[in-house]
């Protein structure tokens, strides 16, 4: 019996390996190889259009990146862009989920309308908002001036005082439905008995929200917040479509700086070094998420 059990276990293990081999090969080719190449090029004198340049340079690429006068402003902009976007998405997404969780006429229509921004491709959304915010013919400035809210059109994307907050606003507009979907699904899984018991204890709507709803949303909140911290930090296309890092580097983030190193200056070594720094930063975010996730799991089990 023991021999037969070992044989079946070996057969099952071989089948699992065989079934997973296409996915493992896919990950190795499309993720593993590029990652190893970037980590290797970070310590090499690599150039995109001059293949004759090469050789090990140690930490020179990292020193070049850190010494760049645009590096630390780009770090600051990346933090503002990431934290501002995630906080805005969380607040708006949670508020929309609370409204859509209420029973009302036309509930299905409102839910579909809320999810539309998430369905719009980033490039389309960015170009559309860029047109709407144009100071010369954009509908936003037209409405602001016609209603008397402002005396003259505002150059939302061309003024460094407005540019970062504007791209954050547009990013929140497009991304909050993802939070709404997640929160709404979690809310509908909360047993009605918990709310009824809280109401019998004299808890008002605000108290029921903080004592019943929010604790039930801790798990999903942890997941989507940390996922979006990484997604937003490495996001390139949204800012590039709208401002290309301008005006005057006001919206220059680390992904934009990587693009400039690699495809404008053709300095693959510096681009790889900065990519490695970002990889370490996002890995740290994942470590923090893992620790909080384990703590939350232990509290639930306990």
TrEMBL record:
CDD domains: TM_PBP2. It holds the Pfam family BPD_transp_1. One of its GO terms (cellular component) is plasma membrane. InterPro entries: MetI-like, MetI-like_sf. Residues 75-289 form the ABC transmembrane type-1 domain. It is a multi-pass membrane protein. It comes from the Bacteria. PROSITE patterns: ABC_TM1. Keywords: Cell membrane, Membrane, Transmembrane, Transmembrane helix, Transport. The chain crosses the membrane at residues 15-36, 79-100, 112-132, 162-181, 217-242, 268-290. Gene3D superfamilies: MetI-like. SUPFAM superfamilies: MetI-like. GO terms for biological process: transmembrane transport. It is found in: Cell membrane. The keyword Transport applies. Belongs to the binding-protein-dependent transport system permease family. PANTHER family: BLR7065 PROTEIN, SPERMIDINE_PUTRESCINE TRANSPORT SYSTEM PERMEASE PROTEIN. This is Sugar ABC transporter permease. The lineage of its organism: Bacteria, Bacillati, Actinomycetota, Actinomycetes, Micrococcales.
């Amino acid at each position: 019996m023991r021999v037969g059990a070992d044989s079946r276990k070996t057969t099952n293990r071989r089948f699992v390996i065989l079934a997973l081999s296409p996915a493992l090969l896919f990950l190795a080719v499309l993720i593993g190889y590029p990652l190893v190449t970037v980590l290797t090029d970070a310590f090499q004198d690599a150039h995109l259009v001059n293949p004759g340049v090469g050789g090990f340079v140690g930490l020179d690429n990292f020193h070049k990146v850190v010494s760049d006068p645009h590096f630390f402003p780009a770090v600051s902009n990346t933090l503002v862009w990431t934290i501002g976007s995630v906080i805005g998405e969380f607040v708006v997404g949670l508020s929309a989920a609370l409204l859509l969780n209420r029973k009302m006429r036309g509930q299905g229509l409102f839910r579909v309308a809320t999810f539309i921004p998430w369905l719009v491709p980033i490039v389309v959304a960015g170009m559309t908002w860029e047109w709407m915010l144009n100071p010369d013919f954009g509908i936003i400035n037209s409405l602001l001036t016609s209603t008397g809210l402002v005396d003259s059109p505002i150059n939302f994307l061309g003024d460094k005082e407005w540019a970062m907050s504007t791209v954050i606003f547009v990013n929140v507009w497009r991304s909050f439905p993802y939070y709404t979907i997640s929160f709404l699904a979690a809310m509908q899984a909360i047993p009605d008995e918990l709310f009824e018991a809280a109401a019998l204890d004299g808890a008002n709507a605000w108290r029921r929200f903080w004592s019943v709803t929010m604790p039930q949303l801790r798990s999903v909140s942890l997941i989507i917040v940390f996922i979006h911290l990484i997604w937003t930090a490495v996001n390139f296309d949204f800012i590039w479509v709208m401002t290309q890092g301008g005006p005057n580097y006001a919206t220059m983030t680390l992904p934009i700086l990587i693009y400039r190193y690699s495809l404008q200056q053709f300095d693959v070594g510096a681009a790889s070094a900065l990519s490695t720094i970002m990889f370490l930063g996002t890995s740290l975010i994942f470590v923090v998420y893992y620790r909080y996730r384990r703590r939350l799991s232990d509290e639930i089990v306990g």
